[in-house]
Design brief:
Largest sheet: 6 strands, mixed
CATH superfamily: P-loop containing nucleotide triphosphate hydrolases
CATH topology: Rossmann fold
Radius of gyration: 18 Å
Number of domains: 1
Number of strands: 6
Strand content: 15-25%
Mean pLDDT: 84
Low-confidence stretches: 201-218
């Protein structure tokens, strides 16, 4: 591997989406990562929220910018999810360690990502609310067994990152995004970007039709929930 010059400033940008059942703490994880804050009374996300944050890996002088789409967990917004994980580079499938149903839902999201998300997407299965370990319904060895099963079904080109965290205390949150950053194809993106600049071209990024997204969010919010 080529040695990186200490004066070299390297940059890569990736789209990341959060998926999971309502009230598992997706927004709390994002706000802890982006703003280092926690709000016990945070309202449920409507449709999706967009935030950005960067992390730096000093050993390679590389900065990664995450474009983060925090999706709503309510069932009536589920049809919007493909619009957000389309062209995503990474996905956090979040569950609450005190809720078995949320763990089952996170597994459903992983199945959907494997069917419809871009090839090579980095998936993280994240158990939130580790500060409530005494009320745990999902054991760590159960998660490990699930991951081993998924790994045996893979072709070796992808893997699932697993972790637990507490958005309330902040424990483990930064480590999750660091792990994702290290699993992303940073070198490939930087090299492609350099080639594009050399050729006088602009780097193309996957985006979202925000006007369409707002229309669909409004329709979902106005519909009755089953």
């Amino acid at each position: 591997m080529a040695e990186v010059s200490p004066t070299t400033n390297r940059f890569a940008q990736f789209k990341l989406v959060l998926l999971g059942e309502s009230a598992v703490g997706k927004s709390s994880i994002v706000h802890r990562f982006v703003k280092n804050t926690f709000d016990d009374l945070r309202e449920s996300t409507i449709g999706a929220a967009f935030l950005t944050q960067t992390i730096t890996f000093p050993e390679t002088n590389t900065t990664i910018k995450f474009e983060i789409w925090d999706t709503a967990g309510q069932e009536r917004y589920k049809s919007l999810a493909p619009m957000y994980y389309r062209n995503a580079n990474a996905a956090l499938c979040v569950y609450d360690i005190t809720s078995r149903s949320s763990f089952n839902k996170a597994q459903d999201w992983i199945k959907e990502l494997k069917r419809q998300a871009p090839e090579g997407i980095v998936i993280a299965l994240v158990g939130n609310k580790s500060d409530l370990a005494e009320d745990r319904q999902v054991e760590a060895d159960e998660v490990e067994e699930y991951i081993q099963q998924q790994t045996s079904e893979e072709d070796g080109n992808s893997r699932i990152i697993t972790s637990e965290c507490s958005a309330k205390s902040g424990e483990g949150v930064l480590e999750i995004f660091n792990s994702i950053g290290r699993a992303l194809p940073v070198e490939e993106v930087i090299n492609a970007s350099s080639r594009g600049r050399s050729a006088g071209g602009a780097r193309q990024q996957g985006g979202i039709d925000l006007a369409r997204a707002r229309r669909q969010q409004a329709a979902a919010a106005n519909s009755s929930c089953c």
